[in-house]
Structure formats: C-alpha cells, structure tokens
Amino acid sequence: MSLTIPMTRTLLGMAAGLALSAGPLTAQAQSDEDVKMGFIVKKPEQAWFINEQEAATALGEEKGFEVVRLSGEDGQEVLSAIDNLNSQGAEGFVICPPDVRLGPAIMNRAKQYGMKVVTVDDRFLNSDGEPMEDVPHLGMSGYKIGEQVGNAIAEEMDNRGWDPDEVAALRITNYELPTAKERTDGATAALLESGFKKDNIFDAPQQNTDTSSAFSAASPVFSKRGDFEHWVIYALNEESVLGGVRASEQYGLDPDQVIGVGINGSGAAFAEFSRETPTGFYGTVAVSSTMHGRQSADNLYQWITEGEKPKANTETAGKLMTRENWEDVREELGL
Ligand code: GLA
C-alpha cells in the first residue's frame, strides 16, 4: 500500500510565509487557514453527536480552522474516514469511536499519516483492556453522573410515595463500553444507598447505545416481571432510557407507573419534554455536548498549532433536567 504523507506544518508555514509577502493576509489568518481537522462520531444521527460536531465547526469558524465532519459507525468506516482526512490534508482528528477496542488500529492508521488524535466521550482501550493513556481524552465523569441519575430517581420515588420494596428497576446495560458501565454502576450505587432492593434490579443488556437496541433489550424484561406495578429505568444515555420507556408503554404501563432518568440532555430529551402530556421519561442529567465539541476541538487545535499536548483525561459534570426546568438548563449549558 502506498501512503501519501501530508505536507508538514513547517512546510505549510513556509508556504504561508511566502504568500504573506505577496498578499494582504495577516500572519495569524494565514497560519490558521492551514489547519484542518476531522471530527468523527459513532452515531452521526444522534442529537448529542450532531451538536458536538456543530459546536466544533462553529469554534473553527471563530478561530479560523476547518472541521471535516465524518461518520464512523464501524471500524471500516473509521479507517476510510482517516484515509479521506489524510487526502484532504487534515493534521488530526477528534473521535468518538464505534468500539473502544478499535483504539490500537485507529492509532496505527493515524500514526502512518502523522496525525494527532484526541478522543471524546468514549475512551480507547488497549489490547489489555486498559484506557490508552497516551491519547488525550475528554468525557463525562460517568460514575458521578450515574449517581446523579440514581439520586434523581430515588427522590422522585419519594415524591410519588412509592414503597421501595415494591419497585422494580430496569437497568439497561452496556458492559462493553467502560463509560456506560461506570454510569449504570453509579446509578445503582446511589439507588441502593437510598434503600432500593438489590433483588428488584433487572438487567437488559443492549447491543448498542441507541433507542432501538434498548427497546429490544427492555421488552422481555417487562413481560417476565409483570408482578411489579412501579418501575424505574436507567441506562448510559437518554436515547436508551427512551427505548425502555417506549417498551414500558407498549407493555401497557402508564406514565405515572414509570420513572425513567437518562443522561445527555440533547434533542431526544427536548422532544420528549415538549410533548403535551408527561411520559415515563421523568428527567435526564444534562451534560454540555456543546462544550464537549468545542473543548475537544480546541484541545486538538492547540496541540496542532502550539505543540501543547492536551491533558490525558478531562472529566465533565452534569445537571438534572426535567419537564419543569429543561428550557433553563438548556440555556445555561448553551445547548
Ligand atoms: C456515549 C454515549 C452517548 C453520550 C456520550 C457522552 O458515547 O453513547 O450517547 O452519552 O457517551 O459522553
């Protein structure tokens, strides 16, 4: 296989210098124009990822660099995206990978092209299943945000006067993805702490991180446990909790029998809160996807232009959003 190595920044800088003496551009504008980066996401149709990519693009427009938005729904698509970026002269990319175990393969390809890589949301694992510490990462603090989910559920159970002994939990899990496990583990810990019964927690392992995989995982759990009248639902994100809520509706549960709390605070939640009548989707812990998109792109930009490698791991926090306050929280987080 023959590889085309993109012009290095030094060469591009020299070219910019030549252009400078001949044209009216300022040095700042000229050097910024040289920077092009990719932003590859595993689920390009999900509101969370659309917002991240848009926020990165907007930052690029402010600062004068170009962001190429790409989809990487499987390993093959990610590798083609990297080839594509290389042929466009990109110097690096931000990525939320479709599978964290693809980390070493993705890094190999990036290294062949001399590209810098930062991950967002889902952190690469090495072949031993450990986080790839040398790839800078920005993601949410999964366990803490999970605890917020558990606490929100416990509080709402209390408001509704439910007897904890008679409530079942639908825990939609994805143990392939470490941040997902941290989130559901945090929620479980907080629930147990509040007095929830461990034996009343039922697992629905999902194959993916979206609504339809959660719906398929959840449906059989409701059918099997028809003896419970009250349910709480949690998962790694709101898309999955929505899958659980839709399954509860299909099974015949009313909204006042269900407390679903998600994570993200993106368009999927806004649409649900905007419905005329409440559903079993009680709330979601919102994290700023705008900040995730901007910050990860900015970190990469600084690295490319100043040679400053971003820190190994940045953890972000969240805020509970419900039907009552969602518009305010949305504004506060710049969503
Ligand atoms: C994972 C989930 C997304 C979103 C991000 C946020 O990638 O699949 O829905 O929650 O984490 O970090």
TrEMBL record:
Q: Does this entry carry the keyword Signal? A: yes
Instruction: Give residue numbers for the site The binding site for the sugar molecule has not yet been established, but C-87 may be involved.
Output: 96
Its GO CC terms? outer membrane-bounded periplasmic space
Q: Which UniProt keywords apply?
A: Periplasm, Signal, Sugar transport, Transport
Please indicate which superkingdom the organism of origin belongs to.
Bacteria
Q: Does the keyword Transcription regulation apply?
A: no
**What GO annotations for molecular function exist for this entry?**
carbohydrate binding
Give its localization: Periplasm
**What range does the record give for the signal peptide?**
1-29
Q: Which CDD domains match?
A: PBP1_arabinose_binding
What protein does this entry describe?
A: L-arabinose-binding periplasmic protein
Natural source organism = Chromohalobacter moromii
